[in-house]
Amino acid sequence: MPIDPPPTPWVFPDPRAVDDDLVGIGADLEPGTVLGAYRAGLFPMPFDDRPRAPMGWWSPERRGVLEPGGLKVSRSLHRSCRRFEIRVDTAFEEVIEACADPARPHGWISNGIRSAYLRLHELGWVHSVEAWRDGRLAGGLYGVAVGGLFAGESMFHRETDASKVALVGLVDLLDDEHVAERLVDVQWATPHLTSLGVVEVEREDYLDRLGRVLACPLPTAFS
């Protein structure tokens, strides 16, 4: 079971009172602070790409989510799923290192973010879902699991479709008797994610739903 860290001393702004995706700047990346942010409908991301950029706390006005049963699996992706083995938390550090690769375009995972999520992984709150083939890590994703919420942070692939297969694996892990109360949060709905079934919801709707989602039990794979 996840280990509860000390609570954060910071008070986050109410996202409902802010007319922007960026809700606040500052605070810290202690485990209690980061978990408190997710429970309040926020997530951390550096404010800009400067090496010592202040931390931004975001709650998109239009949130990208994958609803239960909403994943679109094409025939080609279905075939790809048969080529890979899904594992959970067997190579977390390698997954986050691959996601943080500075050679990737639009990289945002700073050393501070990486360290914070490694600590949360050690406490049992952050998990990797990995696609393996022939004994090699081919792709994967990582995110925060709190109750029925899985907040996806980043994904990568070294082989075609491997990150998509990891997403299919994640959805399979969430498919239990509580699946109707679960939600995959992807922050913003990119065209790529939209092609996989991600939709946008208004921030107000997301926040209204969040309490019920957080009250849901953790999936067995993450508990």
From TrEMBL:
GO biological process, one term: protein catabolic process
Cellular localization per UniProt: Cytoplasm
Matching InterPro entries: Acyl_CoA_acyltransferase, Leu/Phe-tRNA_Trfase, Leu/Phe-tRNA_Trfase_C, Leu/Phe-tRNA_Trfase_N
GO molecular function: leucyl-tRNA--protein transferase activity
SUPFAM superfamilies listed in its UniProt record: Acyl-CoA N-acyltransferases (Nat)
EC number: 2.3.2.6
Record's catalysed reaction(s): N-terminal L-lysyl-[protein] + L-leucyl-tRNA(Leu) = N-terminal L-leucyl-L-lysyl-[protein] + tRNA(Leu) + H(+); L-phenylalanyl-tRNA(Phe) + an N-terminal L-alpha-aminoacyl-[protein] = an N-terminal L-phenylalanyl-L-alpha-aminoacyl-[protein] + tRNA(Phe); N-terminal L-arginyl-[protein] + L-leucyl-tRNA(Leu) = N-terminal L-leucyl-L-arginyl-[protein] + tRNA(Leu) + H(+)
Pfam families reported for this sequence: Leu_Phe_trans
A Gene Ontology cellular-component term: cytoplasm
Top-rank taxon: Bacteria
Alphabetical keyword list: Acyltransferase, Cytoplasm, Transferase
Function of the molecule: Functions in the N-end rule pathway of protein degradation where it conjugates Leu, Phe and, less efficiently, Met from aminoacyl-tRNAs to the N-termini of proteins containing an N-terminal arginine or lysine.
Family per similarity comment: Belongs to the L/F-transferase family.
Protein name: Leucyl/phenylalanyl-tRNA--protein transferase
Source species of the chain: Nocardioides guangzhouensis
Higher taxonomy: Bacteria, Bacillati, Actinomycetota, Actinomycetes, Propionibacteriales
